Structures
1.
Amino acid sequence: DTEVTQTPKHLVMGMTNKKSLKCEQHMGHRAMYWYKQKAKKPPELMFVYSYEKLSINESVPSRFSPECPNSSLLNLHLHALQPEDSALYLCASSQESSGPYNEQFFGPGTRLTVL
Amino acid sequence: RKEVEQDPGPFNVPEGATVAFNCTYSNSASQSFFWYRQDCRKEPKLLMSVYSSGNEDGRFTAQLNRASQYISLLIRDSKLSDSATYLCVVNRDNTGKLIFGQGTTLQVKP
C-alpha cells in the first residue's frame, strides 16, 4: 500500500476562519512533508517532519501551523489566511528525510480557496 | 539561473513517437534524481528514480550524465495517456528538501 490520504479534498474558507488539513500514511514512513502548489508552478516545500519532529520550516508565515501527532499523521492548521494562500496543498511521505534514497510519495492534495 | 532547469515545452507529438526531455542541474554534489509525472489538477506521481547512470522501466528510460550535470527522460511509443507535465526533481543535499524543475508539458495527439 503506497497510499497517502488527505482530507478534505476541497476547502473554502474566509479570512477569519480556522481550519485544519489532515494527512495520513500507513507505509511506515518516518518523514512527512507539506507542499503548496499554485497553478502551472511546481510544488514549493513548506515543512518537513522527521521522526515526528519539525526539521525544516521554509520560512512559512505563522498563519500556517503544522503538527505531527504521530508517525502516521500530519496536520496543517490554518488561521487568518489571505486570498493569495489559495492553492493546492500537498502532503508527501518518504522512508527517511535524510540520505539519497528519498523517494517522496504524494497524497491527492487539498484544494484550498480563501475568500 | 534556476537550480534545476527544464524546457517547459509544450512538446506536441503524435501517438507512437519517441520523445526526450532534458533537465540540467547546477549543484554538482546532488546525489539522486527523480522524474515525476503530474496530470492536470492531480498530485505528482513518481515515475522513475535515478541513483546511478540510468534506469529503464518499459517504455521509459532515464539517463544521468554527472559530468555534464543533466538528466534525460526518453519515452518510446508515446500513448495518449502519456500527456502530462513531467517534473525533474533533484535531491541536492539529502536533507529531505527536493528541488523541482518547472516541468515539461507533453501533449500526445492521435
2.
Amino acid sequence: DGGITQSPKYLFRKEGQNVTLSCEQNLNHDAMYWYRQDPGQGLRLIYYSQIVNDFQKGDIAEGYSVSREKKESFPLTVTSAQKNPTAFYLCASSIGTGALGYTFGSGTRLTVV
Amino acid sequence: AQSVAQPEDQVNVAEGNPLTVKCTYSVSGNPYLFWYVQYPNRGLQFLLKYITGDNLVKGSYGFEAEFNKSQTSFHLKKPSALVSDSALYFCAVRDSYTGTASKLTFGTGTRLQVTL
C-alpha cells in the first residue's frame, strides 16, 4: 500500500544533541512538508520541498534543517539550536503544490530529557 | 495572508445527536477548504474537501461540510454522532493559486467529545 512512513514513532533526545526524524513516501508525490504540533497551537509549518534538491523555510524553521536528495525522502534534523524541541512532528506529502490536499504520516513524538 | 479560525476548542455532543464543528477562513482569492481528523498519537486523516461546485460536500464516515462564501465559513456536520467520532478535527485552507508559494494553513483544532 502507498503511504508515508515516519520513524521512529517515539524519540528521546538529551539537551545539546541533534536528532534526525525520518520521512519516506512511496506515493510518487512531488512535494513534502514538515509540521510541528503543540497542544492548542495547531500545525505550524517548519520546512517544505516542492522538488528534489530544493526546499524552503516555513513559519518556524529556526533550529531545524532538512534535505531532499531523493523524491521519496525528506528527513528533518532537530538541532541543538532549537530551544523547545519537545513536540509531535508530522510529515506530509502532496501531488504538485497540494491543491487537492496533503497525505500525512503517523508522526514522531520527540521528547527532550 | 490566509488564515483559519476554529472558535471552539471543544465540542461536546451526545451520541445520536447532530454535531457541528465550526470553521471560518480568510484568503485572498478563491478558497480550497479541507477537513482532517486526528486520533491520539496519529497523523491527520483526510475527511473532505471543497474545491469548486456544490456548496454541500460529502466526505468520509458520514461527515459533510457546507461552504458559505458570504460568511466565509466551512462548518463540518454530521446528522448523528457516534462515540467513535471523538477526535481532534482540523480545518485547513489555501487559495486556488497553484503556484509553489501557496500552502495549506491549518486551524488550531477542535476536540469533539461524543458521550453515551
